[in-house]
Design brief:
The chain has 16 helices and 18 strands. Strands 1, 2, 3, 4, 5, 16, 17 and 18 form an eight-stranded mixed beta sheet that branches.
Length: 430
């Protein structure tokens, strides 16, 4: 090949420099999402909605083509309906079961190294996002696995919902410590009120966002609800959590523990059934949030064989769920505030929003039920200005569903097609 002359080299160089000098348009920082309609969390429905996102925040909400800024990147999701990213106020996201033949969820999870659990629980995180849930309040995990997942998700090393984690939940020791044994309060296990402050402080120092107390028996097939923390001990836990600037959730399957959790000043009461009218009125007065987790016991009853539970266990779970539903009906009629909590464990992730169906059965309108997972959940977390609405300045958490949840809340169960969290698309099933 003949080498180019110096003149040709100079001419070619001039052309290349001219090309380099041409300005290359930068990608637009604005992302416009078009929707058939938007249920914005404030009670408004915006037709032909346009949501403008910049980085991880919502910049504006408008309607029609005129609301799309020139040069914005456009994602057209019409005719899907938009809703705010949902909030599940009660999960155990590190409870993972691989469904290996011959294994059972509880025994498998208890014997696994914590690093394995954190890695494997990414599946629970992914399935949670697929339900449209972009934030969870996680209420109890071994070895601070929930806080590890929270931090990995925040730094972008893992994909999952925003986690508000409790670390170890506080529980009562079931038997005396052996002589010379190390104290159990770093793991949340206390003997009496004298150890509660140390147990709460241990969770705070580990980085917990919320404090959890197991105020009664009750878990899995056990629906006994025997109170384990006295009113005075619950008050000590509440006061300690508040001194550290944290909110507190108290688990009680029974009415007595639920009543005392309210009187102690907990921000939320989890599970409790058969709450009397006086307790419900006190919840309204104090603004105590009820997180009934009705569907949780449906999940166990539907998977008796997986857990090795008997037909009698199933009947007990069904009976408890009926009492749970009736209590929710009375609480709603009394004006108690609710937040959606699935109490999801193991293969229950991916079914997070089924709780909303029970809320409708308890007398809520679909709009009221949806609010428990948006503005209601945000208020419980103290994040009213960040989550629960699609509005300027809020986090860019947005879900698109096939159907109208204000007509039929069940479209949320299997109709989620697209999910954005903090401005990033994390689910796309269009």
């Amino acid at each position: 090949m003949r080498r180019p002359t110096d003149a040709r080299v100079v001419a070619l160089f001039a052309v290349l420099c001219a090309a380099c000098a041409e300005p290359v348009p930068a990608p637009s920082a604005l992302h416009a999402i078009r929707l058939g309609a938007l249920i914005d969390g404030s009670g408004e429905v915006v037709p032909d909605a346009v949501v403008i996102v910049e980085a991880d925040r919502i910049l504006s909400v408008g309607s029609g083509s005129a609301a799309v800024p020139a040069g914005a990147r456009v994602t057209d999701l019409r005719p899907l309906t938009g809703i705010p990213g949902l909030i599940d106020a009660h999960t155990h996201i590190t409870y993972y079961w691989d469904q290996a033949p011959g294994s059972q969820p509880w025994s498998q999870s208890g014997g696994r190294r914590i690093a394995e659990t954190v890695f494997l629980a990414q599946e629970n995180a992914r399935r949670t996002l697929e339900t449209g849930v972009t934030t969870v309040r996680d209420l109890g995990a071994r070895d601070y696995a929930d806080l590890s997942m929270r931090d990995l998700i925040e730094r972008g090393a893992m994909v999952g919902p925003r986690i508000i984690g409790a670390g170890y939940g506080l529980s009562k020791l079931r038997r005396p410590l052996e002589p010379g044994a190390s104290p159990a309060w770093p793991r949340g296990r206390v003997r009496d009120a004298s150890e509660i402050e140390a147990a709460v402080r241990a969770q705070v120092e580990a980085g917990a966002d919320v404090i959890k107390v197991y105020g009664s028996t009750g878990s899995g097939r056990d629906v006994t609800g025997v109170q384990t923390f006295t009113l005075e001990e619950m008050r000590a836990a509440v006061e300690s959590a508040h001194r550290h600037g944290l909110r507190i959730a108290i688990h009680s399957y029974g009415p007595e523990g639920g009543r005392d959790a309210v009187m102690a000043g907990a921000e939320s009461v989890e599970h409790a059934v058969d709450l009397d009218d006086r307790t419900l009125a006190e919840m309204v007065r104090r603004g105590t949030v009820y997180v009934p987790t009705i569907d949780h016991n449906r999940y166990y009853a539907d998977h008796l064989d997986d857990f090795g539970y008997s037909a009698e266990d199933g009947a007990n779970l069904d009976a408890y769920r009926a009492r749970n539903l009736e209590t929710a009906r009375r609480a709603h009629a009394a004006g108690v505030s609710f937040a959606m909590g699935s109490d999801a464990v193991f293969t229950g992730f991916g079914e997070n929003t089924r709780e909303l169906g029970w809320f409708v059965e308890a007398g809520m309108t679909p709009a009221e039920a949806l609010a428990t997972a948006t503005v209601g959940g945000a208020a419980l977390l103290g994040m009213e200005g960040e989550l629960g609405r699609v509005a300027p300045g809020y986090r860019a958490d947005l879900v698109a569903v096939d159907g109208d949840p204000l007509s039929d809340i069940r479209v949320l169960f299997d109709g989620v097609r697209w999910v954005m969290k903090d401005g990033a698309v994390v689910v796309n099933r269009r």
